[in-house]
Design goal:
Helix content: 40-55%
Structural class: mainly alpha
Shape: elongated
CATH class of the largest domain: Alpha Beta
Strand order of the largest sheet: 3-4-7
Radius of gyration: 33 Å
CATH topology of the largest domain: Rossmann fold
Number of domains: 5
Largest sheet: 3 strands, antiparallel
Distance between the termini: 76 Å
Length: 505
């Protein structure tokens, strides 16, 4: 890199941060850290009508939960602040006027009614109305009016916008790190509004000015901004500034692979599309979040990294440090990336196995305590977790896998009972209970050696003993090793459960 790497993530605070936005933030973060650069958060709130209370805090909390915190942003290292566009609005007018002065922009006084008339007139003729070189001299703007007429309209308080003057009969040669060389015919471009009649800049102007003033070196953003690339390049040229390098990330597609992933897809198919739970301040509707659904942040980040990027190897499991080391924008795909709800569960299952048992036990303890209305020692829960988590994807899965460690079975699986409980089962279980009761060295190894030794010496089939024993302890033919269960629930509880089973046969 020839200059300091500074990237920005610039969401609008119009609601919760979509998982696609998190992916954009992640790729910016990985690129910045790979090159020893800075990751900046800028809140693009020029559209105050769509502003939603709490959305900015949600965005920051979501980034922090994912482990990709900002280096600069609102209330943090404000070297180039402020970082909310609404607090920077005094900056933009001068640049709009500079563009007018150098002939790259103009005042437009067209009313909403007049523009609507032109659109409908074009539609009636099977055409599309585009405000640009082919008709701007016929409309109400400073290119078509005299200087005196323009001055009079402004002094009289007429509403106006400032539009960019897109060139005619030129070919733009643009570069994108992901998509390569792009050619654009300027004749198809419209004269975008840069400054609105309410005194606020549009996204296009504010974004360019802020990126320049904040010394952004690379703009890494979603594919939906690709149509704006030509205008943004031209604005840099018109203002005499060096443009940053651009990279447009592929869309995140629905699980079917057709169309952009939306909140409705998550609601319909039963998975979150937001990192954290969100309560709409207007309707109180609650949208699910990956955190509250039991996903590990590391799993979500690992999954998102593979939506549109691949390391060029077979490796799929990456911690954040490994992602930073491996990440390269040149290995980001152009084609859209299909969102696979099952794949993110696969990642979560892996991270469940890697997670420290003590941490899982702390998360699982409230579930256990609530289920049996008791305060269970977290160290005991930790031992249980170590035995059953292999089959779990979420902490919430653990109760079905381990409830028998905390309370005796209330009934026995009917199908398993027919299979395990035979005429001589009472006698067998009575003997097993005696053996366990008489075992002084109460360890898993010794219990296993003693009981299996008795089975072998008496030439009894292992199934005739172990199936009814498991059923007595668990209530079903499931769970980890029987002797691990016996050891954890203890001698007295084991004998009690065996005796209860004997009475029910």
């Amino acid at each position: 890199m020839t200059k300091n790497v500074r990237v920005r993530f610039a969401p609008s605070p119009t609601g919760p941060l979509h998982i696609g936005g998190v992916r954009t933030a992640l790729f910016n973060y990985l690129f910045a850290k790979k090159h020893g650069g800075q990751f900046i958060l800028r809140i693009e709130d020029t559209d105050q009508n769509r502003y939603v209370e709490g959305a900015e805090n949600y965005i920051i909390n979501a980034l922090n939960w994912c482990g990709i915190p900002l280096d600069e942003g609102p209330n943090k290292n404000e070297k180039f602040g402020p970082y909310r566009q609404s607090e920077r609005k005094n900056l933009y007018k001068q640049y709009a006027e500079k563009l007018i002065a150098n002939g790259n922009a103009y005042y437009a006084f067209d009313t909403a009614e007049a523009l609507d008339f032109h659109r409908k007139d074009h539609e009636a003729k099977g055409k599309t109305f585009i405000y640009n070189w082919h008709n701007r001299l016929k409309l109400s703007n400073s290119l078509a009016l005299s200087a005196e007429e323009v001055k009079a309209k402004i002094e009289a308080g007429h509403d106006y916008v400032i539009r960019f003057k897109s060139p005619q009969d030129e070919t733009l040669h643009l570069k994108d790190i992901i998509r390569g060389d792009i050619k654009i015919d300027t004749n198809i471009l419209d004269d975008k509004v840069l400054f609105k009649s309410d005194g606020m800049p549009t996204y296009h102007l504010a974004n360019i000015v802020d990126d320049h003033l904040m010394e952004i070196s690379h703009v890494i953003r979603g594919e939906e901004w690709l149509p704006s690339l030509a205008l943004h390049y031209q604005l840099y040229q018109a203002l005499g500034w060096e443009a940053p390098q651009f990279a447009h990330l592929p869309l995140i597609l629905k699980p079917t692979g057709k169309g952009k992933l939306s909140k409705r897809d998550g609601d319909k198919l039963g998975f979150p599309v937001f990192p954290l739970e969100w309560t709409d301040p207007k309707t109180n509707d609650v949208s699910r979040g990956y955190k509250e659904d039991g996903y590990f942040a590391d799993a979500v980040v690992n999954f998102l990294a593979f939506l549109g990027w691949n390391p060029g190897t077979e490796q799929e499991i990456f911690n954040l440090e490994q992602l930073i080391e491996a990440f390269d924008l040149k290995r980001v795909n152009k084609a859209g990336a299909r969102f696979d709800p099952d794949k993110i569960k696969w990642f979560n299952h892996h991270y469940m196995q890697q997670q420290n048992n003590a941490i899982i036990a702390e998360q699982y303890k409230p579930i256990v305590d609530n289920a049996i209305n008791s305060n269970i020692d977290v160290n005991y829960i930790e031992m249980v977790v170590g035995l059953v988590k292999e089959r779990a994807t979420f902490v919430s899965d653990l109760w079905d896998l381990s409830h028998f460690f905390f309370k005796a079975p209330e009934n026995y699986d009917e199908k398993a009972s027919k299979k395990a409980f035979k005429e001589d089962t009472k006698t067998i279980l009575t003997t097993v209970a005696e053996i366990i009761n008489n075992t002084n060295d109460f360890t898993v190894e010794n219990l296993q050696k003693t009981v299996k030794g008795w089975i072998t010496s008496n030439e009894i089939g292992f199934g005739k003993v172990m199936m009814p024993l498991r059923l007595a302890l668990v209530g079903a033919l499931q769970g980890p090793d029987v002797f691990d269960i016996i050891y954890l629930i203890g001698k007295n509880e084991t004998i009690s459960r065996i005796n209860t089973a004997i009475k029910s046969i």
